[in-house]
Amino acid sequence: MVDDPLDPPPEPQPQTPPAVAAASPSPSPPPLLLRPRREAFEHGLLPIPKLIFPEGTLAHTLAQVKDKLASAADGGGRVAAAALAEALQIPHEQAALALATLAAVLPADDPALDSGGGGGADLRDVLLFLYIQSYKRLVPRAHKDSPAVTDVWPSTSAFDGYLSALSPIQLVRSNSRRFMPSQADEEIHQLSYLQKHMANILTLLADSVEGEGDDSLVLTMETFEHLGFLLKFSEGTPLSQAATFFANSDPDMPAAPVSAAQVHDWISQNISASLEFSTEKSISKEVSQQVTSDIDVTMADANASNARNSTPTGTNPAYYRNTTFVEGFSKTSVVKHASDVKGHSVKVLNCHESVIYILAPLKYATVYGCSDATVVLGAIGKVVKVEHCERVHIIAAAKRICIANCRECIFYLGVNHQPLIVGDNHKLQVAPFNTYYPQLGEHLAKVGVDPAINKWDQPFVLGVVDPHDSLSHPAGVSDVQAESAARLDPDLFTNFMIPSWFGTEVQEPTKCCPFPLPEIYCASQSKKLAALEDIRRTIRELQIDDNRKKELTNALHAQFKDWLYACQLEY
């Protein structure tokens, strides 16, 4: 399964007001716009210290690792978990996790590398994966009046000392969402990282041949195409077709290798053009925002302006078009069917006291900065990432899930691989998957999630410190194992009902939860059903007159309303 092609260019937008247009003329995009593959940076980084090498010795150390892996690889140049564990001196379980993570973020499925990290990965993919472990995430922009914000909203988060700056409740209170990096900012940061390190990356991938200087290192077209792990064109054009030195190569005759220096020049030129265009767009956007809006808007205005329920349709085709956003909702319900989703990924960002239904087959899903909400993710074929959430119920059917820096959340999971838990978590609970909708079975089959396998209660726990995030975990903080998740008490387990009007007609609808329920939870459900039946029978057998029946009915309705209101407060 290859990354989905990009959607057609968005419809033309209404003309910019004259004052804004004068302040920020839109730059013309280059013919081809090179982008980083966000999946590799968003879902492919692991907080395992031995995978991360100091920048000063990164190229040299990875060259030595390459020699070790090449000598241990099979005849096809593939690296197994045992060889990776030996080369990096890490436990076999961590090596298997690294290969499984690599499998989840490759641009195309690798038949020889299963999603659990078994089999073997292509050596070139492994080297690229190890290289980007040195990447540092972009930190938020400084608030223009940080001391004032701190004074008005004192920190009371349980994350104090590590994560107070990223606590979702504090994000809402201080209205600091605008100072978090935008999607465009992050892509510029990723492109800049690749620009800085591309010479070393190409040297790592290149083959040595006879010659002097730059001519002694060459890349074949096959090796060049592996750079698609890190880079892609916004129009969906394959790298080898866009590169003049490999374009229109005869498929029956292998193209001649090209010098690494020539490849580096071509990539550098394309990255520079993309960075120039993206930076101009970013500056233009900031100027437009300053002209058209008051910086110190009220919280109500901020919430209203931030609410988005679909992919943004800005004029920059380089961003977003493979991602659907559900952002900034409060005290409401949002439903997304397959027909509503653009691209192969969804991001649920900064939603509070809401219920979000994503009833679609997708590759990737991110839930970030949400609180007091319920998020239903129907079928995710690669990775779900839940980060910086508080008191959120996540109901997810997926190949795998990563949980980072969350507190007091409950995860109702149907996952084929162990849930990965990293960062500073508090009071997490896990439970079996507990819902269904008519198309769920079809969606699971489409993305390759097997409902017969559910490892919801087998978390894989790594450390608290994330070396990729200098803001959340400052340098010098010693690492400890992250807090794991407890099993939800079976007596507190309930099924989550998705309203039937959210569904559409299907030939073979799913009529029950496709993931088998563990025996202890089945017993608890049976106990509750038996108690309910006893209550019903008792009410039916009551020998009372009509007036008393009416009083009983009113009392039951009142109790039900109180219960429903209490549930709303809980969420």
From TrEMBL:
Coiled coil: none annotated. PROSITE patterns: C_CAP_COFACTOR_C (PS51329). Pfam families: TBCC. Keywords: Cytoplasm, Cytoskeleton. Residues 7-17 have a biased composition (Pro residues). Residues 1-31 are annotated as: Disordered. The keyword RNA-binding does not apply. It is found in: Cytoplasm, Cytoskeleton, Microtubule organizing center, Centrosome; Cytoplasm, Cytoskeleton, Spindle pole. GO terms for cellular component: spindle pole. Signal peptide: none annotated. Residues 317-449 form the C-CAP/cofactor C-like domain. It comes from the Eukaryota. The keyword Cytoplasm applies. InterPro entries: C-CAP_CF_C-like, CAP/MinC_C, CAP_C_sf, CARP_motif, TBCC1, Tubulin-bd_cofactor_C_dom. PANTHER family: TBCC DOMAIN-CONTAINING PROTEIN 1 (PTHR16052:SF0). Belongs to the TBCC family. This is TBCC domain-containing protein 1.
